[in-house]
Amino acid sequence: MRAWLFWLVVALVIGAVTHLSYVLIAPSFAMQTLMIGDQDNAPVNKFVLLDGAEQARLLGETERDAVSAKCAFDIGKGQMSIDAEMPDTFWSLTLYSNNGADLYTINDRQAGTDKFKLTVKRAPDLADIFSSDQSENARAMSDGWSVEVPESKGIAVFWMALDYPEQRKLFIETLSRSVCTFTPSQ
Amino acid sequence: MRLGSLIKGAGILFLGGVIGIVSAQWSVEKNATAMTAGGGPWKSWFSGTASIRNPYVNAHYLMFGRLPPALGQELMFEARQDDDGATLTASCDYVIRGPRLTARWWQLAIADEDSGEPTMLSLTSSQLIGETDGTMRIAISRLPKAGNWINPGDLSRFELVLKLRPGSGLNASAAVVSLPHIRREACS
Fold first, then answer.
1. How many CB pairs under 8 A join A and B?
2. How far apart are CA B164 and CA B173, in angstroms?
3. Same domain, residue pair B70 and B150
């Protein structure tokens, strides 16, 4: 009877570990796959325009629905600047952490411009917070906006709607002028 | 004796794994809420008014290969059944009908229910042909239909995924969005 109870407790503990792994760890791996796909040397801190297959995989949208691009980022040892040039249409830019949380998002109406610079840097740690005034985590700078994020790895997703498929070429031409640049910390 | 212990250990490990996965999937499923203002089969895992920090909600999107909706930019609704509660299957014809969606951009897509993966079958707001009375009507059928038509092709069971992008940067609560009805017509 005692042995039976012991093994039941063992099964429940294994069940709890599996449950937590499914909910907390497995989604991070799924996000990694979404971010970089099956590529071994996926570009990091670089602007990448998504082709139809990649767009369908990441956003579930076809080439005739939307145009999209990404910058997978790793700002553990520096910061990344996004110099975005968006077409004059309905667009959004969203930063996701590597566990799928949305860190920052903006669209054309909120931005009020189709050409802007967004600097993405790590949020200060606890010691920095207590030693200085960090009242906002997104702020305007003289040459664009700056956003401080709690995670060092993630992905910036550029998205824009197509009213008709023929716009695709024009939108790609404009969006391709966007750049993601990594600047190492001093 | 050793073989017996080994079998027992493997059995316990297997039982624990099954308990963990089944309870996790149940918890993820439980986090969905029936969301249409007028009832119906649409569900959402995202309230629309708070950033996704609930790990069960996050797991729902990521484990099915989807990026979670961004706060203020997108609402996402899913339906696996028609208005009468029957599973959506490609061997039946369906009509999606309701008032025209007010979002600045929306997409109605078909996802493979078996694999959970998105397909290339979709219709967006810019492709929609509106009805003269201001409503919208979309047919899902393997046979060609007049007006807005999505062909589910070789799929067996499928799921409808409706993405709404309000465009204002502020989502309404998912609970107050009026969504279209899903009516089953003929089955082959």
1. 142
2. 12
3. yes
Place of tokens 């708070």: B50
- Domain extent, residue B143, equals 32-187
pLDDT of A158 reads 95
Mean pLDDT of A88-92: 94
pTM of the model: 0.84
Per-window interface: B 21-40 vs A, CB < 8 A: 21, 23-25, 27-28
How is residue B58 written in tokens? 């996050």
B38 pLDDT above the threshold of 70: no
- Nearest-CA distance from B154 to chain A in Å? 18
Give the pair of three-digit tokens for residue B148. Answer: 């807005």
CATH architecture of A48-184: Sandwich (2.60)
Tell me, yes or no, whether B22 and B82 share the same domain.
no
Q: Are both B24 and B63 inside the same structural domain? A: no
Cβ–Cβ < 8 Å for A66, A59: yes
Residue A134's pLDDT is what?
A: 46
